[in-house]
Amino acid sequence: MQSDIMTIHTQVTTASRLADLDMENIQFGKIFADHMVSIDYANGEWQTPQILPYGPIELSPATAALHYGQALFEGMKAYKTVDGQVVLFRPQANWARMNESAKRLCMPEIPEELFMESLKQLIALDANWVPGKVGNSLYIRPFMFASDALVGVRPSETYKFMIFCSPASQYYAEPVRVKIEEKYTRSVEGGAGYAKAAGNYGASLYPTKLAQEKGFHQVIWTDGKEHNFIEESGTMNVMFVIDGKLITPALSSSILAGITRDSVLQLARDWGMPVEERRISVQEIVDAHAAGTLEDAFGTGTAATIAPIKSIMYKEHEMELPAVANRTFSNKVAAELDKIRHGQAEDVHGWMVPVQ
Ligand code: COI
């Protein structure tokens, strides 16, 4: 018999930590809101969802996710509009992408209603944790992991799906210096790069650390065969404006279908800007820079939204890009996304979903 998945059992905290939060001085991902969602999957079905005070969870040392990486996550945000409403940015897109990741990792898909209702109730309960300042938000982290205690390698039979939240300000304090990666690979064709699999991030840490030791913020990932084609930038998708055209790598099995990526492309198309989703060779970027037609470069992601790229290092040559203040497209699109999210511009695509 199907469990009662739409009755959410809620235990409200008796010790809110909200008073400890300095809304004027938020550091990304360090403080967690009062409550969390926890839903177990067992016997082939999702169990009754719970909202609990945020806190540690107890796990067996043999928990499968800790050994074989059967774990995924999502990143999304809630905003406060200028008239005080709490709204979510494109939550259905996160739900759909989460289920794509789940399929790739042999994990159970989560029904839309279960995801959306538990999410909305959590954010409504912790609404006072949503910062009001334009540009700030409540970062929301849904995730799922294999919870069987078993050393054998096979898909788990039990899982835990959870959501917690963390107030967020800007992710990068300054425009990023990046280095084109010529040795390591984030993902290859046929791999799990398109999924938000925890392991993709674990494997990215070492090459990123090497780049950071040389003074770069992150690497630009290239294709796994020849390192000739651009894939992503750090934990973000990457875009360039060359000669008035917005260009980004086409989606593939090695590239994450970013929701910010999709939103930026949509706004560019709305504005009549030529948009190309296709393969981009490293040489094309080098040539455009030499010709003076590389007008803009930036990462797109939930955490950073738009992260301007200051310079790109390739084979000992650092290509400086135009001053960030003079970049027409990335500044315009970042400002427009902020306006839509905070209710200061019309939401023509129906991206914003109120929590109540
Ligand atoms: C995002 O920006 O969407 C991310 O996934 C970044 C996160 C890993 C902090």
UniProtKB/TrEMBL annotation:
Presence of keyword Transcription: no
Keyword tRNA-binding: no
Reaction(s) catalysed by this chain's protein: L-isoleucine + 2-oxoglutarate = (S)-3-methyl-2-oxopentanoate + L-glutamate; L-leucine + 2-oxoglutarate = 4-methyl-2-oxopentanoate + L-glutamate; L-valine + 2-oxoglutarate = 3-methyl-2-oxobutanoate + L-glutamate
Keywords from the named record: Amino-acid biosynthesis, Aminotransferase, Branched-chain amino acid biosynthesis, Pyridoxal phosphate, Transferase
Classification via Gene3D superfamilies: 3.30.470.10, D-amino Acid Aminotransferase, subunit A, domain 2
Source taxon at top rank: Bacteria
GO BP of this protein: isoleucine biosynthetic process; L-leucine biosynthetic process; L-valine biosynthetic process
Family: Belongs to the class-IV pyridoxal-phosphate-dependent aminotransferase family.
PANTHER family with a match to the protein in the record: BRANCHED-CHAIN-AMINO-ACID AMINOTRANSFERASE, SUBGROUP IIII AMINOTRANSFERASE
Protein name: branched-chain-amino-acid transaminase
UniProt lineage: Bacteria, Pseudomonadati, Bacteroidota, Cytophagia, Cytophagales
